[in-house]
């Protein structure tokens, strides 16, 4: 895989060649990755997968016409051809008044911050030992009858970006993972449980036994599910699935959706969307963060952003194109992936914890449901209407009761956000982190 200096040199050459062919402006991105994953099943080594990929993306502008193209061929001749094809495509593309690089005066200058994203790879034999320990711990839990396997992985990647108007930067990051999936029960009464954890440094991961036990405990807890009555009731989201609610918020805050008039948050900028006390922050410069990055996909510096301040929606997430459409300045939230044009997203997002424990949060729920799994994609980003299949556990008399499955939960995201209450059990283990969340007034459909 190319190192940072080599990646920057190739990106710079791509941009220069595109300019020599008539492009008024251009930028080039490189994304390279290496990974190794060891998987075991029923105590036996099942696979050792090693992969490596390298991809260049080139975006060129001729006037207000643009084209974006990508290639996994990295030799000089192929990259020269890539530039030629991109310029030919841009020459016949329709004009777009929003086309162009990010504002030059906003580009990142100076040294990149050290975000502590790089660590040594884990040796293959250690990955194997870890995977076996994960599965052994899972299979030792009473009620587990089969295993879909356990795994441990390690990897690293390099990201580089060069623009024709003065930005050049690159950084590296590492990744370590541990996972398990096991089955409890027999016949037509089997349930699956899984756990997956990832971190920039292996020392930040739970030990293999803890990963295996967590997967097994989830499977056993789901045995013999029932359905439940239909009707309006409080719904409590486990943090693993509660994160998806913030994903819907981020999608509705994205500049392209706002510019198209296709967001349920369209008329809510600067207005209360959540209850007072709710704060959601995007932290791209968090050391060791799973989604940390020193610059965005267009060469702008990144910085912490408060998305929701004491319940109030602060503004939109903008790349250069959506900012121009809205008559604003970009916010440093552009992201790139290979041969695609920039899109908009966040980094490490945190919904700050509330003051109540989980037991206090559910104590007054006479009849409700605690959701651990969501199924389907029944969310309308324009209206905010929300309807998804779900499973989890009943809440009866303020206590978690037996498992339930085959239910549907429904509501509207604006109303759900307005009634959302967080517990105090926030853990920083993912790119998007939330505590347990309670939402009153949702509709549950059982059998």
TrEMBL record:
The cellular component terms of Gene Ontology attached to this UniProt record, alphabetical and capped at eight, are: cytosol
Provide the GO biological process annotations. Answer: proteolysis
> What is stated as this protein's family in its record?
Belongs to the peptidase U62 family.
**What is the protein name given in its UniProt record?**
Modulator protein
- Note one Pfam family from the annotation: PmbA_TldD_1st
Q: Which Gene3D superfamilies match?
A: PmbA/TldD superfamily
Quote the InterPro entries the UniProt record gives: Metalloprtase-TldD/E_C, Metalloprtase-TldD/E_cen_dom, Metalloprtase-TldD/E_N, PmbA, TldD/PmbA_N, TldD/PmbA_sf
Q: Kindly list the GO molecular function terms attached to this UniProt entry.
A: metallopeptidase activity
Reading the lineage from the top rank, the first entry is Bacteria
Provide the organism lineage as a comma list.
Bacteria, Pseudomonadati, Pseudomonadota, Alphaproteobacteria, Sphingomonadales
